[in-house]
Fold this sequence. Notes:
The chain is about 40% helix and about 15% strand.
Amino acid sequence: MRDLVAETSLDVGHFVAPLFVREGIEEPQAIAALPGIVQHTRSSLREEVKALADLGVGAVILFGVPLSKDAVGSQAFLPAGIVQQSLRDLVADVGDEMVLMADLCVDEYTDHGHCGVLDGPAGDPHTSVDNDATLEVYGRIAVAQADAGAHVVAPSGMMDGQVGAIRAALDAAGHKQVAILAYSAKYASGLYGPFRDAVDCAIVGGGDRKAYQQDWRNAREAIVEVQADISEGADMVMVKPALAYLDIIAAVKAAVNVPVAAYHVSGEYAMLQAAAANGWIDHDAVALEHLTAIRRAGADVILSYLTHWFAARTA
Length: 315
Ligand code: PBG
């Protein structure tokens, strides 16, 4: 009877698996703070995505770890960049069965670790991210990812005007069908720590992202950000992280009529794994409770490192 009247269900079709692919490695590399998640080689990525497709997962989102980094993050938009090469692989393997998403940002690709181009020397306290110069770079990345076969690009840098700039660049290049999943309400959270190890990203000079990510003391700002992204052409909007922001997910769901995604981020996954490994909580019970809560709050789409586990469990 509990099942009969349950208001919320978890379906593998709503999950997106975040995957890391690293250039220049021969074997997948474990990520210490994300047990069970690896930096893939191009070929192990192909195997993992085929396995996910067989389990019924409908979408993946790629993050690249390039061999070389520079001031603007060129490996993010060069055709030979690791994500562009991997997208071509995946289009050939599963392009008709799976939605292929690409994270669109430069923090994994810049030698200073910020999500945009800088207006001065890295590490200098007077240096800022140059918002508008960054938009030009984001446009190039979007076109490169779409050329390589991405169905969805997901800008995560929180630059003002990024969705509009990317939409214009995609349309001008003939990619009118490529959708934008905007990381619209992205908070300057401490929960991204394990991710930064996963992509070998550190901010030079020890800075932070508070100049472009949201303050977690604020809720209403999230709605402003989401509305701006939708007016610029976002097809889906995201709230990130998820569990500490269920109120934001619910408010966004009530305020908009586009699909709402939530990113259950690396630190949320890491806390669960660590407590479960110590025998302090029951992994499966808490994982299901957390994922269901994210859906209950209103997320249509969940990005989570638990995707493979969940899909295997329900297959
Ligand atoms: C930026 C980006 C980040 C994450 C996704 N995209 C890191 C950041 O903003 O510092 C974090 C995801 C996670 O913690 O799982 N490219």
